[in-house]
Structure formats: C-alpha cells, structure tokens
## 1
Amino acid sequence: MKTLHLVYLLPVLALLSGCLSLNSDEQKAEAAEKAVLAKHDELMAQMDQLTILRQQLQKTPGPDTVAACRQRRALLAADAAMMDWMHRYRKPADTAAVARRLSYFAGQQHKIDSVAVLFRTSLDSAQLLLKAAAPAPSSTRR
C-alpha cells in the first residue's frame, strides 16, 4: 500500500519541483529587469546635473573656451545616449520565454552601463574644467 502511495506522489513531486525552478527563473528575470531599471533611475536622477553643468560651461569665461565647448558636447552626448536608450527599450512580453527575457535584460544592462560610463566621465570632466576655470580666491590685505 505504501508503495502505491509513493507511485502517485512521485509525479506530484516532479511537477512541484518543476514549478519551483520555473518560479526561480521568473524571479531571475524580474531581478534582471529591476537591475536595468534601477540603473536607469539612477541616471535619470543626474539629468538635472547634466543640464546645470552645460549651462555653467556656457557662461564660463576664460581662455579655454574650446575645452568648455568640448565638455558641453560630451554632456549633450551623454544626454542623447540616455534618450536613445529610453526610446529603444522595449520590455519583453511576460509570455516570452524566460531565457529570451534574461538575454534581453542582459543586453540592456550592458547598454545602460555604457550610458552610465558616458554620464560619469562627462560629468567628472565638466566639473574638473569648471573647478579649474573658477577664479582663485583673493586674499585680503590689512
């Protein structure tokens, strides 16, 4: 009798383990999507900083206006890369195979990470240029 119950129980256990691994794959796809969107949100929070630095570079007086123009173009390129990524991003359907979704999100993670590098380098370079162009503090004499 116990053997008979085990025979009925084995397919149920096999089905249950299959569901658990499917659920695990679904969780991986959700986590991959969340990671991509978290990087997007992080970069979006820096968009104002891009604009502010661009405006500051436009107003920066000094002999090195060529460098300021170059930095403004780099900031514009970072902005354009972000806009391009956002316009091209298309979340795969939930009904798509998990492997396909994971592959898509991996590709998108690579792309948004590249945009993040462009953001960071252009922001850092612009800040350095502005700092170098800032007038030195004058000392007061008594």
## 2
Amino acid sequence: MTAHAGPVRPARTGHADRAVRARKADRAARHAFRSRRVRMATFAAVLLTAAAVLTAIEVITGLLDRPWHLIPYERVSDVAWNDAKALGITAALAALGLIFLLAGLLPGRTRMVPLQGDDPAVMMGVNRRGLKRAAAAAAEDAPGVSRVRKVKLRRRRVKVHAETPVHRPAGLGQGVAASVQERLDRLRPFPPRSVKVRLRAEKD
C-alpha cells in the first residue's frame, strides 16, 4: 500500500517583515549550500593550465630559435579543416566546452540540505544522510513498522519503503507518513518535502 502526506504550510502571521526575512533566509541558505562543482572545476582548471603551459613553452622556445615542437603545428597547418577527422575533433572540443559551461551554470547535487530559518545571517543545513536517517527513525517509531528498508530523498518528496508484520496493513501507511512528515516539519528542510510511504507485509 502507498500513503502520502504533504508539508504543513506556516500560518499567516500578518507580519510582512518576518515573511520577507524568512524568504531572504531561505535564499541565503540555498546559495550557501549549493554544490560548487569542485571536481569539474578542478578538471577544467588542470586542462587549461596544461594547455597554457604547453603554449608558453612553444612560444618561448620558438623565440629562442630552439622550438621543442611539443605541439606538431606543422602537421596542423596542413590539415584540411573540412576533413572528417578534423571535424570530429572540433566537435568533441565544442562538446567538452559545452559540458563545462553547463556545469558552471546549472546547480549541482549538494550533499547538504538547507534548513528554513528566519534570519538571513544564520544559515543551517543537514547532510542528506542525516535527513534520511531522521526520516527512517520517525518511520520506525510509527506503530506497525518492523523495519525501514530504504529512504529515497528527492527535491520535493521523501519516499520511505518499510515493512510491517501486519498482513493487511490498511491505514498504517497514513500513520507512518504522518510521523515522518511531523519530523520533517520540525527540521524544516528547504524546499519543503512531502512524504510517500510504501508499506508491505513481511514475508513468512
């Protein structure tokens, strides 16, 4: 069986300043915990540094009339640019550049989940494993759950797969979903996440 629970919306307080500060705090936390794409940036920096070093060596040794010929530019100058091999290399380089561009523009998957706050100067977060453990612990505390098999964390949803000794667990899923949702509402992850529970009976 499958059950759902949605995030609890905060009550209207009538204080516009507090709502604005909360939105600013959410944006600040999301920006602070955004993935920096360290591996991709390091790889791109190494490639650019290597290309710059090779170019500098060729230029300096050429000025000294002792070219090292690390780059076979004589062969490159004789290449027909409409040749299939040349077009394939340029297409590969263009694709590599596009990958680096997209990696810099698109947000990566961060290991930290920002938590909602009321002060933009105070940013809090929890790692994805910690949030999964919190959801699993809340599900295990719910009546009728014998074991949590797996917790999947999505951007807008938490999926909990659990087992129960009850052979006909009708209605138990809603209780498990409510227990997990209550734990999430206390942690206040950003963006808020709904809960989906898949409960199955234990095998004899």
## 3
Amino acid sequence: MKQTILIILIFIVLISCQNKSQEGKIFDSINYSDTTIVEHQTPDGIIEFEPYDYDTILSGGYNFKYKVYTDKTGEKLQSLTLRKGDDEIKVLNETSFPMLFKNLGYIGADFDSSFVFVQSFGSGNPHEIQLIDKKTGKELRKGTWVDVDEKEQVMLYIENEHEQNEKLLIYDIKNRNEILSTGFEKSKCVEHVIGGLRNCVEIDTVTTDEIVLKIDTDEEKIIKKYNR
C-alpha cells in the first residue's frame, strides 16, 4: 500500500515539473485546414489557440504563415510571412501581440502573380494597401484602397492621399498598364463626403477593351471610360 502511494506521489511530481517547464513556451504555427493557428501556453498553464481570422491561402500554392513569438527583449510579437508551400519568401508585417489582426494585415485581392495586402485601422480610416509580387515578395504599388475587380485583375487606388500630388490611379495588372484618372475631384460627393475619392469613386465595369469608373449618388452620376 505504501509503495503504491509513493508511486502516485512521484507521478504527480513529474507531471507538475513538466507543466512548469512548458510555462511561457511559444510553439511554431501549424496549418489547420485553410486557417493558420498558433498554439501557446499562458502563465497559468492553460493551452490557448490563436486563430488568424482572415483567409491565409493564395492561388498558385502561396499562403501566409501566422506566428506569435517572443523576441530577445521579452516582447511578445506577431507576424505574417509570405510562403510558397512551406518555403518562406518574406515577412510582410510584424507588430505587437495582442493587436487587431486587421492592423497586422490581410488579403484584399488575389491575382495570378500578385496580391493586394491590406491594413485597416478603424472605421472611416483609409485602408492602406500594397500590391505584392507573389514570387519575390516585392512591393509593386502602394497607396490607399478604393476598389478592385479581382476577376479582371484591375485595381483602383489613391497614391499620396491628402497630399498636393494626390492621384487616383487605375492599375491593370493583367496588362501591366497604369492609368491616371482625373475629373472626379470637383464632384459634390468628393467635396462633401468624408474620405472623398476613396468613398465616392468605384469600378463600374471592366471588359477586354475598356475600364469604366463611376460616381453614382442621388445628387449626381459621373461616368468615365478608359481604354484598356
């Protein structure tokens, strides 16, 4: 009987030591279906899972790796890394943890050879974007989100928003052609709506030969057509 009690006590001590040694440990991210989750252990020994709320899968075999970790100074961080399969290409962004995932970034549009990486900072604020080459992780374009036609691979964005050299640009990814759009600046919508161009102008239609933008409100309707 005494021997049985002794064995039980030894087993309890071993388990306790094992749990103590795991305290604060951060594990590498693992893929679960189409969502990346990170497993980590809290100071009180409870295992938690941190799911990344946005889609992490891109066409062509590319994806995001979401990671939570502690740096050399002891600060807990989170990051998104562009990968092809399991091969890492580039860290897209890194920020403190916890922090809203939309601040860290998410996929805004997925094209054949590139994608739109978006960061959002609250309702009404501009959505900052980068058009990123999948193969290299290189930034191809940068600005403020306006609209996109994912199927036709056309992106509408603002460069240098609220600056003297602000531009409304159409980037045709498929044909590698950029078009400057002018004439919407003096519209009633742009003059009176918070956010101006980015909250007034949208892509109407895209065909093989033409890209059509519009402002369509109760007060006005403005259509502009561009050769593709």
## 4
Amino acid sequence: MARARTTVNRAVLAASGLALLLVGAWLALANRAPSWWPAADTGALWPTRTRLARLRAEDWWTPTVLATAILLTVLLAYVCLAQLRPGPARHLALPSPGGTVRPRALAEALTARAATVPGVARARARVLPRRRRRLDVGLRVWLHPGTPPDAVLPSLHAVTAEAERATAPYTAYTRIRLSTPSRRRSRVH
C-alpha cells in the first residue's frame, strides 16, 4: 500500500510540475492572452489584456517570468527526485556485534506478539527512532468485548519490556492505547 501511494504521489507531482512548466512558458512567450483571460471591463483582479501587453513590452518581463518558471521547475524537480531516492536506511543497532533491525520489522514483531496476548482481538505497533538512542513506541490494542484492561496490561507491559531489552542501547518510551471493538449494530433497510 505504501509503495502504491508513493508511486501515485510521484506521478501527481511530476504531472503538476510539467503542467505548471508548460503553462508558465506559454504565458511568458505567447503574443496574445488566452481566451479565458478576463476582459478589461470585468473589473477582475487579473491584469487586463492591455496591461498584459504593456508588461510584455517591458524589458524585465520576459526574463522575470522565465526565471520564475525555471526556479519553480528546479524546485519541483528537486522535490520529485527527493521522492524517488529512498530515505536513509535507518537500522537500529542491536547489542550483538553487527546486529541490526529495521524499525518496521520491530513494529511487526511487536504487533504479532501483542496480538497473542489473551483478551486482545488485534493490535498495531509503531516504532519511531529518535535522537539520543530513544525509541517512541506506540501500541494500539483492541480488546475482545468484555475483557477488562487490567487483565491485559501486565502482559502488554511484559511484551514492551521484552522489546526494550532486545534493543538494549535504546530507551523505549511506550504509549499503549486500549480500545474495544465498536458495538454498532448493522442496520438492514
């Protein structure tokens, strides 16, 4: 899902940049205003056709419009290229020599481990590495109906403590959020 969203983001960004480049170049170099441009008597905020003609006659107009279009193109190309390259490979160093783990893999392991706790319907974990060897761990847990939070909290605490011991140089700051499944009844019309 994340790759599909990234691909769509890149495609939209590239298409937007190309469209802005073409429109900017056309507006800067065309000898006449487009048909949708407001007429002089409409009182619109856009420059009128005569004002646009006077602006194009100025020596600074074309270089300014071209420089702005080029600057926007370079900026959008930079953002597009930044989307293409992968981010820094953030691996967490483990206490064993040469041992590393990806934060996403640790989150998946925490999710699987928390889902096995009796009374837990499903779970989702998120691990975010921070500066100074700190991990922010978010654990979202949905309980089976009728399961009291006191019944699962000690086991969930043991799961997060196990994860913190496994990533020993890091200090984990864990937030556990407990929820129950929605009790909405399905309606038939």
